[in-house]
Amino acid sequence: MLGAILLGAGGAYGTSPAALPSESPDNSITVVLLDTRGTEAGEPGTPVPDVDIEVSDDSGTVGEGTTDEEGRVSIPIPGLGSYTVTVDEDTLPEDTELSGEGGNERSVNVVISGDMRVQFPIADERAAGAGFVSKLMTGAVSGIKFGLIIGLAALGLSMVFGTTGLTNFSHGELITFGGLVVYGFNRGLGLPVVVAGILTVFVSAGFGWVQERGLWRPLRRRGTGLVAMMIVSIGFALFLRNVYQYVFGGTTKSLSQYVSQQRVSLGPVSLAPKEMAIIAIALVAIALVCAALMTTRLGKATRAVADNPALASSSGLRVDGIIGWVWIIGTALTGLAGVLLAVDQQVEFQMGFKMLLLVFASVTLGGLGTIWGALIGSMVVGIMVEVSPVLGVPAELKYTPALLVLILILLVRPQGILGRRERIG
Amino acid sequence: MDWGSIFSNAMASALGPDAIVYALAAIGLNVHFGYTGLLNFGQAGFMAVAAYGLAASVATWGLPFWVGIAIGFGAALLLALLLGVPTLRLRADYLAIATIASAEILRLVFGSVTLSDWFGGSNGRQQFADTFYDLNPYSSRLDFGLFSFSANDAWVFTVGWVLVALSCLAVWSLMRSPWGRVLKSIREDEDAVRSLGKNVFSYKMQALILGGMFGALAGFMLAIKQQSVIPTDYATDITFFAYTALLLGGAGRVLGPVIGAMIFWFLMTFLGGFFSSAASIDLIPDVVMSDIQASLVRFILVGAGLMALMIFRPQGIFGDRREIAIDGR
Amino acid sequence: MDVETSATGREALASVPNTPGAPKPDPIIVGDDITRTFGGLTAVDVEHLEIQRGVITALIGPNGAGKTTLFNLLTGFDKPDSGDWSFNGHRLAGLPAFKVARLGMVRTFQLTKVLSKLTVIENMRLGATGQRGERFWLSLLPPLWRPQEQENTERADELLRRFKLDAKREDFAGSLSGGQRKLLEMARALMVDPELIMLDEPMAGVNPALKQSLLGHVKSLRDEGRTVLFVEHDMDMVRDISDWVIVMAQGKIVAEGRPEQIMSDPAVIDAYLGAHHDADLSELDAASIEAEASAELDQEAKDD
């Protein structure tokens, strides 16, 4: 857990971009273990020697090795395919602990000939043994940050659900869209991350409009049922996710700026500047949207449509126009969530898909279709995800408490924390 | 381009173990969604508990194979009860979210390092189906002319299709009985059924369990055919692919899921073979499509195909529009 | 259950006072303090309610008076905030809808709920209670349920003939007209063999040509000894067939009485008819306006 946070701060990375050994065989997996605790960002860390590494595939072990004085080991593999790299944790130095998700194992998909490098974040057991209260606080602040990112996406989902009744399973791909577009602007066109991020929000808004006009509105006009639309959204999700992988590839990539930042100590918690910026940006965006929903004509119209589309339509509101705006704003917010997630972590084609269930959990927790409910639910889910490892949940299972709570809340209060009971008949 | 081998591979895949697994999973979804209107998006979870129930029982705890099968069925039953109690009284989309979430929880738990002593983490569990293969009457390859199966595949093939046939027979006889009539009526309008004195909750639960049992069969076949369970085999997408197969063949029809699964795997293998050989012989330039990208095209088409099916032919490619199982809300 | 019950039931009503919540000589339903709120809005707030056995009772009131909500509460389709009520002495509070129906209290719906993808005869068969073939394991053994299915089918065919739906036997219920759907729903409810049948707006959306026969069918329910409770906007129907009328407004029972008394009660005309004419003109189709107008003419002719 702590390792994940340190990783965000760039404090502990298990590999260095050091040059490959020239004698490396045609196909191999290279693991470099570098302990970067206590070193400045960008500097190489201390090599960790004498650690046993094993590479296996479906049929069993294909190679083993031990890290050398440079913390490096190259293990030849028979060919392209899926492998699992395992670090024998018993051979790690005593004060060292692997801390990334997945613990001591990495699944590696070797798709190009040559050498494949694998990273294992390393955390400090002494750091991990830091005060419980401090860990709890750090987890809570991380949770607030994560919750706000979820909240942006949940707001988008909730607005669309509120006005159209669509449970959109392709919503995760709209988050990914934001992440991939910001990456494209930043790495492809060389724009600064801030500029790329702003442009991405506008592109996302346009994507929302195109989707509404090209897909969802025609479906509503045809009278397609909600269940059918839900399944259409699943097809759309599969379609988009594989297009993303087609275009972007299967690897994880970073933006050009703010990748690793030194943490600033703020009382009991320490935060990187980018994390503070993420929290601030998300708060401002959420506040703006909520204020707009409360005060502007469009906002009132949106709530009227959410309350009763037929009535809103008969009292002269252009329901389709309002739903169009809801898609534009909702997708823009969701795209922003993708941008912030890309800045906070990294970019890959499944980044939003992995968030989808957490977004659903937030929205259900708060009450489907209620704006405030979505926000409260997001904060609860975000904090639960980041705090549960502190409370003893294994790091690789940190999403599960939130998902369990989702199921439990359906049992006791299906309308969510803020939802109202539905009227029958 | 070798059209012959692309076609024969596709045929083998349409009749082979993959199609069997998907047919069984989709038969379960047909009971849930096609007949009862329950949106189970967690069929992968039912498959996973059954497969891991079997694999862990045998490979971790050393229990006999058939005890493992019983434990797998028991686990699927338990999952249906756990899921059904909170969600079957609620709207369709809640069941969808709850089932997809629980399938995801299960996948994370089975893959977790913490529990790797039981479930083997991301490596999963292997070699638990020897009892099954010991019963194999085939001693050599089974040859169908166009393609052939190894002796073990032939045994999986035989048992699998017998299971599919028995499942279809069970569904057919259930759905023409008054019991099936109640399910179909619940799909249409559960309040009407309630007003006639039927315990709708109990019927939905029975349907959830029955469909989950077919999911368990699918999980067993998937685990047995490769003598291995790994968490990634039970990801959410498998549920959605099974839905695609079901909708292809036609929901609410006894043979719909079977025909759908065969078409699905024929197309998947055909398109996979076509694009990968097109990319490798540079029929399509590498800039446009590399080898890896070629393997993705079929998944892109699955997504687009699922959308198109739902929009233009919700009754499936052979179905009768008047009888379509899904409409309205 | 026979003709005698209903005749004596009607006679007995003669002595019942015209006060809201008046006690009846032989009530089939007795309810107390039933309330239901939505958000801050009180939809139903009924102090005392009794429904006489063996007669046709109409429940009327302007839109939003809580009639359908009361129906939902009584039949277990909705949960009240408070209240207690019983059917034939069985306490029903907290009982799920299907158990209420099994006790012999069956309802229909304002928006007709026929099962459109099932045939008419399958709709009917579904209504039969105690079917062995509806149990999972037994359903796999047709010989165990075939004879019962045969009996149910015969009964269903009889009802279809009675409701003039026999020609539609093998059609999908979705292909029926609005009035035929109402008839099918009523016939299907009879498959349960209920003692009390509750009809929610049986005339809504029914072709005027069918109305008269529908009225006849409702009366025949009473004449074979069943109790009928119905919600209706069509005053023509209320006047024509009901033995007793309960008027609701804003969730409360505001008046009760025999139809001719209720129709002339100035308080009811103020509270209900005025509101009804204002609120519902848009909903009424031309035919029912015409029917209402002709009913009024009839009334005037009689007065003359």
TrEMBL record, chain A:
Which keywords, in A-to-Z order, does the entry hold? Amino-acid transport, Cell inner membrane, Cell membrane, Membrane, Transmembrane, Transmembrane helix, Transport
What's its membrane topology? Multi-pass membrane protein
**Gene Ontology MF terms:** L-isoleucine transmembrane transporter activity; L-leucine transmembrane transporter activity; L-phenylalanine transmembrane transporter activity; L-valine transmembrane transporter activity
A UniProt-annotated Pfam family: BPD_transp_2
Q: Which domain of life is it from?
A: Bacteria
Q: Where are the transmembrane segments?
A: 146-169, 189-211, 223-244, 276-294, 322-343, 355-385, 397-413
Checking InterPro entries in the record gives:
ABC_transp_permease (IPR001851), BCAA_transport_permease (IPR052157)
Q: Where in the cell is it found?
A: Cell membrane
What biological process terms from GO does the record include? D-alanine transmembrane transport; L-alanine transport; L-isoleucine import across plasma membrane
GO CC terms: plasma membrane
Residue ranges of the region described as Disordered:
38-73
Name the family the entry cites.
Belongs to the binding-protein-dependent transport system permease family. LivHM subfamily.
Q: Which PANTHER family does the entry mention?
A: BRANCHED-CHAIN AMINO ACID TRANSPORT SYSTEM PERMEASE PROTEIN LIVH, HIGH-AFFINITY BRANCHED-CHAIN AMINO ACID TRANSPORT SYSTEM PERMEASE PROTEIN LIVH
Return the protein name. Answer: Branched-chain amino acid ABC transporter permease
Species annotation: Aeromicrobium phragmitis
Traced from the root, the source organism's taxonomic lineage reads: Bacteria, Bacillati, Actinomycetota, Actinomycetes, Propionibacteriales
Automatic annotation (TrEMBL), chain B:
Q: Does the keyword Metal-binding apply?
A: no
The GO terms this record gives for MF are:
branched-chain amino acid transmembrane transporter activity
**What keyword terms does UniProt attach to this protein?**
Cell membrane, Membrane, Transmembrane, Transmembrane helix
Any single GO CC term annotated in Swiss-Prot or TrEMBL for this entry: plasma membrane
State the InterPro entries in the record: ABC_transp_permease, LivM-like
Classification via CDD domains: TM_PBP1_LivM_like
- Transmembrane stretches in the record are 6-31, 38-59, 65-85, 92-110, 154-175, 207-226, 238-256, 263-284, 296-312
Q: How does this protein sit in the membrane?
A: Multi-pass membrane protein
The subcellular location is: Cell membrane
Quick check: keyword Transmembrane in the entry?
A: yes
Task: Report the PANTHER family cross-referenced here.
Answer: HIGH-AFFINITY BRANCHED-CHAIN AMINO ACID TRANSPORT PROTEIN BRAE, HIGH-AFFINITY BRANCHED-CHAIN AMINO ACID TRANSPORT SYSTEM PERMEASE
Its name, as the record gives it, is Branched-chain amino acid ABC transporter permease
Q: Which organism is it from?
A: Aeromicrobium phragmitis
The opening ranks of the lineage are:
Bacteria, Bacillati, Actinomycetota, Actinomycetes, Propionibacteriales
Automatic annotation (TrEMBL), chain C:
Region called Disordered, residue ranges? 1-26
Going by the UniProt record, its keywords in alphabetical order are: ATP-binding, Nucleotide-binding, Transport
The record's GO molecular-function terms, alphabetically, read:
ATP binding; ATP hydrolysis activity
Q: Quote the cellular component terms of the Gene Ontology held in the record.
A: plasma membrane
User: Which PROSITE patterns does this one have?
Assistant: ABC_TRANSPORTER_1 (PS00211), ABC_TRANSPORTER_2 (PS50893)
Q: Which residues form the ABC transporter domain?
A: 29-275
UniProt feature coiled coil, ranges = none
Q: Which domain of life is it from?
A: Bacteria
Report whether Transferase shows up as a keyword of the record.
no
UniProt-recorded name of the protein? ABC transporter ATP-binding protein
